[in-house]
Amino acid sequence: MRRVPKSEKGEKTWREIFQSAQDLFLHKGYHKTSVLSISKGARISPATFYQYFGSKDEIFEMILETFQGEFFNLLKSIFESEMTLERKIETLITRVFDTFWNFRSEYKVFREAEFIDNILCLSFHQRIKTILKENGFYSGNDEQLNAVFWFLFGPLFYLAGYWILWNEREVPVKTRENLYSFYMSGMCTQDPETFKVSDKVYDTVEELDFNDEKIINRGEKSKKKLFNSAEYLFGKNGYYDTTIHEIASNAGLSVGSFYLYFSSKYEILSELVKNTSKDLRYVMKVYLSRFNDRRNQEIAALKGFLVFFGQHSKMYGVIRECEFIDRKITLDYYDSLKGPYMIALERAVKAGEVADYDVEILSEILMGIGHILGQSLLILPQGPVDDDKKYLEYLAYFMMLGFPGEKTKNRRAK
């Protein structure tokens, strides 16, 4: 039977166990944390651990529940207040980033929990949308509500993960300022109402050439089979619950053949993510190359993004899991996308198509929108939609103009 700490000594032991678990979840993640490692960190035996907690999951769930409670109290205090829209957005940015930094152990636990449990993640998103709906942040249908949610929380969550968890730094002031300007004004230049996104950006490109027919020798074919097998199994079972034997067997090859091409499970994961980045950039280039104006290109690229990962939905989950395996793989993946993105945005700023933001920060903001869009439409139980145009049209409006009714063109951050 678990002990309810009543003495000062018992309370001290309980806190030390809990703190040890928090530290390990932050630095090692859920899968690499064990009851033994928690016990060692608290300087107790596993037997003593079980006197206070039934499992590591019990502590994990306690941290998760506390984090969600604090987060929703934070949102309600902002959105239910009498502050102006501008002040609400400014406060939201400050308090979310500061809270996630100050409680980064709890935040890391939540990030991993929402990856492990799609139902939990969907419920979390729905609760946010309910708060937005109850406080007038949309005036129409569910598609518009989703667009507001993606526009507002995609960049918040992505930037928090990028800086706080992957780079172990507070979100910089300059990033916060650019994000505020983006929320209030969008990415268009002066007189944005004169620009209309082309209807053709929502069209699907029927034929894409990945040069598979050029794979002619036996070795290249075997390697591709292993990549396809790893993508499927990592996406279905997760990285930690997939073995090299399973990858080789599913590809119709021997374990020995696996080691001809890869030295470890980690290496095939890393190479798989690199290949995915290359293929995704190719698809988005095909989609955006049909247009000259960066604003059209931006929405067309989102369409290409959805098409690509619609065909590789398991791979999108694999990339997400890399965050909890080795953040270097995650950073390399997003940085490989960000580099070309920055160059294109710089050209668009000089051409007067996109407002004068810091292009590195703007690329991160826009990637955050794509990240949550993919999560919502490709991974979560609500599943893919038959016609993503209705979602993208609303999202395009906010991306171009920001929130309606409160324009701050003369207050852009750079």
Detailed description of the structure:
This protein has 414 residues and is an all-alpha fold. Among the domains are: 1-54, Arc Repressor Mutant, subunit A (Orthogonal Bundle); 195-360 and 375-395, Tetracycline Repressor, domain 2 (Orthogonal Bundle). Helices cover 70% and strands 0% of the residues. The longest helix has 25 residues, at 142-166. The chain is globular, with a radius of gyration of 23 Å. The N and C termini lie far apart (59 Å).
How are the elements arranged and paired?
Layout: H1 8-27, H2 35-42, H3 46-52, H4 56-79, H5 85-102, H6 104-116, H7 118-134, H8 142-166, H9 173-185, H10 218-237, H11 244-250, H12 255-261, H13 265-288, H14 294-311, H15 313-322, H16 327-350, H17 359-379, H18 389-401
Helix pairs in contact: 1-2, 1-4, 1-6, 4-5, 4-6, 4-7, 5-9, 6-7, 7-8, 8-17, 8-18, 9-18, 10-11, 10-15, 13-14, 13-16, 14-15, 14-17, 15-17, 16-17
